[in-house]
Each structure stands twice: as C-alpha cells, then as structure tokens.
Amino acid sequence: MRDAGLYSRDQIRVINETRMWAFWKLGKLLAKVDRGSGPGRGKKVDVLHPSFRAFIAALDPPLDGNRAKEHQRIGTMPQREMEKAIAQAHKVDEDLTISGLLRTARPWWYKASRQ
Hints:
By secondary structure, the chain is mostly helical. The chain has a domain of about 70 residues. Helix content is about 60%, strand content about 0%. The chain has five helices and no strands. The longest helix is centred in the first third of the chain and has 23 residues. It is globular. The model has no long low-confidence stretch (mean pLDDT about 85).
C-alpha cells in the first residue's frame, strides 16, 4: 500500500494505529467472555456456558483461535502502556505491528496467566 504511493505515511499510520487499538479492545472483550469447560476428559456439556472455541467460531466473521489468543494477550496491556507503544513507534518512525505489541504486552500476559 505504501509502495503504491496512493496514501501518505500519516494516513497509513492513522489506520494502522486504529487497527491496533481495535485489537487491544477486542482482546479486553474476549477476556471477559464467560467460559465453560472445553472438550477433554469427561466431555462435560454446559449449555449455559459454551466453550470459548464455539464462541469465537460463532462470530461473524469467525475468529481463528490463535488470533483470538494474540488479541487477548495484547488486551492484557494497560491503556497507558498501549499509548507508550504507539508513541515509541512514532519516535522511531515505524509502523506498529501485532508482533511488536505482543513483545510489549508480554509482562502483562505472563502476569495474567499466573492468576
């Protein structure tokens, strides 16, 4: 997109940052989803709390499990840290990426996984 010359760097940056904020917000929302027991031993069926896999598969469009996990990991990051990550990307004049956000969010999702 950048190589085509149709959009300026600032226009691309705004869209990219909006996308990253959306991923962050989606991760926060996915973390709040009430989860039932998943498939496995005993194969318990809980009608009131469907499995998380069934929930993300029922979304329109369906969300891949790995992508949902990435969004949830990014969503563990506090808003202030998200703002710092965006400011850092501006400072070095690079686009923010999912992998960059995952590196930044790592301390928070490690902490969340231990709770």
